[in-house]
Amino acid sequence: MPGVLAHVPAVSLPARPGKNDVDPVLDEREPRRVIVHGDDADLASVLVRLLRRDRLDVEVAFVPATRRSAAAQAWNLPRDRSGSAALALDAPARPTPLIRDDSGGVLVGRGVVRDFEGEAYCDNVLVLRGRTKRLVAVPGPDGVSALPGRQVRAATGRALQIGCVEAFVEVEGVPHPRPVPRWTWYRHTADWLLVRP
User: Fold this and answer.
1) β-sheet bridge partners, residue 3
2) What is the DSSP letter of 35?
3) In this structure, what are the phi and psi dihedrals at residue 160, rounded to the nearest 5 degrees?
4) Which of 54, 78, 117, 151 is least enclosed, having the fewest CB within 10 Å?
5) How far out from the chain centre does Cα 98 lie?
6) What is the secondary structure of 130-162 as a DSSP string?
7) Is 47:101 a contact under the CB 8 Å cutoff?
8) How far is CA 192 from CA 30, 31, 154, in A?
9) Residue 40 CB: number of other CB atoms within 10 A?
10) Sequence-separated (6 or more) residues with CB below 8 Å from residue 152
11) What is the pLDDT of residues 28-81, one digit of tens each?
């Protein structure tokens, strides 16, 4: 943990913390702001618990454990620990689109559909019809975006929906446990409060 956060009460949780890890902390401490120090999957795991507990009023700051954080890139956060730690302490929290998926997760940085064969739409824009090695989705201030790629048309909207021959989905670097014939990322009706510039 960066030295600037040494005086902040800390709770050590396992990687990708779940209900039994996060919920007791929310109950005991009733935080107004949490600072997540870890990777993008850790941030997404904490955010899922806030969503399921109906606690999107809790401000969330993120101190990435690596400079390669897709979440830091998506939300224009500092990638160095000292810069992100200072931001976590002093910056305001801003309403930020919460991008969910239809398997109960959230997208905070990067989602990838690999070995794709089918169709993908971002709202009413055809993003892809056919095959591609990968389709990349990222969250942003305007919703969810499909990044341009081989045969993939860039688009941003409220939802990115795919239907395909079974494909492999990876969210925040974590593979989904089985191939899927369809997948949707979509903007939730409520925002989350991300501490960001």
Assistant:
1) none
2) E
3) -120, 115
4) 54
5) 8
6) EEEEEEEEEEETTEEEEPPBTTB--EEESEEEE
7) no
8) 17, 15, 25
9) 27
10) 120, 127, 128, 132, 135, 136, 146
11) 999 999 999 999 999 999 999 999 999 999 999 999 999 999 999 999 999 888
DSSP code of residue 4: G
Tokens of 72: 């830091």
Tokens standing for 28?
Answer: 């005991």
Angle of CA points 33, 159, 68, to nearest 5°: 55
Q: What is the pLDDT of residues 85-112, one digit of tens each?
A: 999 998 999 999 999 999 999 999 999 9
Q: Which run of H or E residues covers position 185?
A: strand 180-187
CB 60 within 8 A of CB 33: yes
pTM to 2 decimals?
A: 0.94
Place of tokens 């919920």: 23
